[in-house]
Design a protein that fits this description.
The protein is α/β, with parallel strands linked by helices and 552 residues long. Helix content is 43%, strand content 17%.
Length: 552
């Protein structure tokens, strides 16, 4: 099978024989509407969707041979199409956005033989772009006799990379880009009679931003039951379209096909784009896995979400708090530019997804989609907040050795010493009052602080499998670390006792999943002191020997 990694052209994909998951029935349904907006994480196929829509509206019947679309469409009307792609823009360049728009308008004018609107010298450059766009839409309608299709890929790219950088130049360019887009989008309202279809894609839906004030509100299908399977790969599609790939991967990694499916599910599945909770796999990671016959964190390592790190760094909120409790739709669907809450950005960028829905109260539960995202994001945050130096690197090496060798006394000493020396360095954005509040031990926030500190430290240990708040049949284990020889199960208590922590592990059966595992297994109960800011008590039980070690 030929896997279309990095291919965003529908024509190239179809003509060159790459594997294609046929979603053209959904494309056909979508094309019957008027103005849409779709938010999806990066590398989820938005650009390919735009290319597919372009081919459909241009009447490229030959590209749809053998697909569901061929059975649905009978007329194949050819519409004039204006397709904008903001992916390649360097937002910080003074004329980057304007040049991109101008180049697209010029190329479209040439392709359809439409004259360029001439304006008097001295006209504002923003008005130039807008009026030229308006003129082109009207002329295309008149020249072809068909209303115009406008497609805009990654509409938010000129804004995202400039958010919250702390640079005055970036802030000024952000304002300039926003004003240019405001004028640009306002044309849709005045040309509505000339428009057949409009589609905007992006990562984030900006709300309460003035650039949309003159824009007819599009139908937001980002969390729409009708289109939750439009992008990404469902489990049914994985098991049918990629059956050959699963067989080849299973042979390469020495697992059965059922075991391989389970590994793929844990690592790449788990996205939900509506309250129907239909599982969607990350397509970029799936394609790379089958192409290279190796599982890796392909999606996360393909790009660093720098704007998210900046937003989290300047926010007073902890990402862990987003995975507990419930949220209304407005809390995570619309990003408000004047808000210090980064939750909508984190959700829409694909680092959190819907994991539960209460229809009675219309409330949603959020969590990490899968292991790839959770481990990758926590590692990123750990490196950003803890800013490991040479001393930290040496500490990590010692931790790895202790875990490798099953030296739990050394492990306790290392954690206790690190927390005692730098207990608050990973949250420099909190003011002194906030630090003192944690120091004196507000229970809920204090527990969150200790958990968060421990989790970020664990994420720096990338050579072993680390699960934080792992969901099990009877609860969530605080932390589980797997090495080739050992399994360590941790439970933490703030100003409690290690016995209470061990009791919780045993009563809720956190170790039950490892009963058939040949590795030695330890459960560790640890209590943190709100006074000293470090580990107060550490108790270990080796499950097979039932031998308890208590250290104070």
């Amino acid at each position: 099978m030929k896997y279309p990694i990095g291919i965003q052209s529908f024509e190239t994909l179809r003509k060159d024989g790459y594997v294609y998951v046929d979603k053209t029935d959904l494309v056909y349904k979508l094309a019957q509407g008027h103005i849409y907006f779709l938010a999806r994480p990066r590398r989820f196929g938005k650009s390919l969707l735009i290319s597919t829509l372009k081919a459909y509206f241009e009447g490229r019947r030959d590209l749809f041979e053998g697909l569901k679309m061929k059975e649905l469409e009978t007329e194949w009307t050819k519409y004039p199409v204006i397709s904008f792609d903001f992916n390649g823009i360097v937002p910080s360049l003074e004329n980057g956005l304007r040049s991109n728009i101008t180049a697209t308008l010029q190329a479209t004018e040439k392709r359809y033989g439409v004259s360029t609107l001439m304006l008097n010298d001295g006209t504002d450059v923003t008005a130039n772009v807008s009026l030229r766009f308006k003129h082109l839409i009207e002329e295309l309608h008149e020249k072809t006799g068909q209303r115009v299709v406008v497609l805009i890929d990654e509409y938010d790219k000129p804004l995202l990379d400039l958010l919250d950088t702390g640079s005055t130049d970036d802030e000024q360019q952000l304002i300039a880009n926003r004003e240019l887009l405001k004028a640009f989008f306002s044309i849709f309202k005045s040309t509505d009679d000339h428009l057949r279809f409009v589609m905007l894609t992006g990562i984030t839906k900006f709300s309460q931003v003035s650039m949309f004030s003159g824009f007819n509100q599009p139908d937001d299908i980002s969390l729409d039951n009708r289109y939750d399977k439009l992008l990404g790969i469902t489990e049914e599609e994985l098991h049918t379209v990629f059956a050959e790939g699963i067989t080849e991967l299973a042979e390469a990694i020495g697992k059965s096909e059922e075991e391989t499916k389970e590994l793929l599910k844990r690592r790449y599945d788990g996205y939900h784009f509506s309250e129907r909770m239909i599982d969607v796999y990350n397509p970029f990671s799936i394609l790379n896995t089958f192409s290279k016959l190796r599982m890796n964190d392909y999606w996360f390592s393909s790009g660093t979400p720098s704007y998210l790190v900046r937003l989290l760094g300047n926010s007073q909120e902890d990402i862990m708090s987003y995975t507990s409790g419930e949220h209304s739709l407005d809390e995570f669907l619309n990003y408000k530019a004047d808000s210090a809450k980064p939750l909508p950005m984190i959700f829409q960028a694909g680092y959190l997804t819907v994991k539960g829905y209460d229809p009675e109260f219309e409330m949603y539960r959020l969590n990490y989609p899968n292991n790839e995202v959770k481990q990758g994001l926590m590692t990123l945050l750990a490196n950003d907040y803890l800013k490991p130096d040479g001393q930290t690197a040496s500490w990590i090496q010692k931790i790895v050795r202790a875990l490798r060798d099953g030296d739990l006394e050394q492990l306790r000493k290392l954690f206790t010493g690190f927390l005692a020396e730098t207990p608050y360095s990973m949250r420099p954005k909190k003011d002194q009052k906030d630090r003192e509040r944690l120091r004196v031990g507000e229970q809920s926030s204090g527990m969150l602080y200790f958990h968060y500190t421990f989790y970020l430290l664990m994420r720096l240990i990338s050579c072993y499998t680390v699960y934080t708040e792992k969901q099990l049949s009877e609860g969530r284990a605080d932390c589980i670390i797997e090495t080739p020889k050992y399994v360590y199960i941790f439970e933490f208590k703030l100003d409690g006792t290690a016995d209470e922590a061990l009791q919780q592990i045993n009563e809720r059966g956190y170790a039950r999943a490892y009963e058939a595992d040949a590795r030695a297994q330890y459960i560790i109960g640890a209590s943190f002191s709100s006074k000293t800011g470090t580990i107060e008590e550490w108790k270990i039980e080796e499950l097979k020997l039932k031998k308890v070690k208590n250290v104070r």
